[in-house]
Design goal:
Layout: H1 6-23, H2 27-31, H3 39-50, H4 66-85, H5 92-107, H6 114-142
Helix pairs in contact: 1-3, 3-4, 3-5, 4-5, 4-6, 5-6
């Protein structure tokens, strides 16, 4: 993870609060298997991953719009998947962010802008490819060399 300055950490905390307020009533969150107490850890991790997307926003909103929330989850998904592909370990919180991003991607409707629809489609496709990649890795690990 990148080292953040005090100001970035402060802004990440504000963003985490906005994400939490926006996420807690979303159907994808309510239908997920995540325990209610995990929302704080998920929001803090996600905000630290995507704070750079909000650099040009002077004052962070108290609550994110649906499009901003989806975009944050999709961006966080991309960062985590790239880290996984580069063989960095993934935490339980990372898996929760991946699952929520995939849930949002499946739940998106045509009322959103084309960029967000394209990003959702990409999340679905990359998520499926990532699952396939993980299965293949696990099969290789479980296969023993026989003569």
């Amino acid at each position: 993870m990148l080292v953040m300055s005090f100001k970035e950490r402060w802004r990440a905390a504000e963003l985490a609060s906005a994400i939490e307020k926006s996420l807690q009533n979303e159907s994808v969150w309510l239908e997920s298997s995540n325990p209610a107490k995990s929302i704080d850890a998920i929001c803090r991790k996600l905000s630290s991953l995507v704070i750079s997307d909000f650099r040009r926003v002077e004052t962070l909103p108290k609550r994110l719009t649906e499009a901003e929330l989806l975009s944050a989850f999709f961006s966080g998904f991309s960062v985590i998947i790239n880290a996984s592909i580069n063989q960095k370990s993934i935490t339980k919180t990372d898996y929760s962010i991946i699952a929520l991003a995939r849930g949002f991607a499946l739940d998106i409707d045509l009322s959103h802008n084309q960029d967000l629809l394209d990003h959702a489609s990409s999340v679905i496709q990359v998520g499926n490819n990532w699952d396939k990649h993980i299965r293949e890795l696990n099969q290789r690990r479980n296969t023993r060399f026989t003569v």
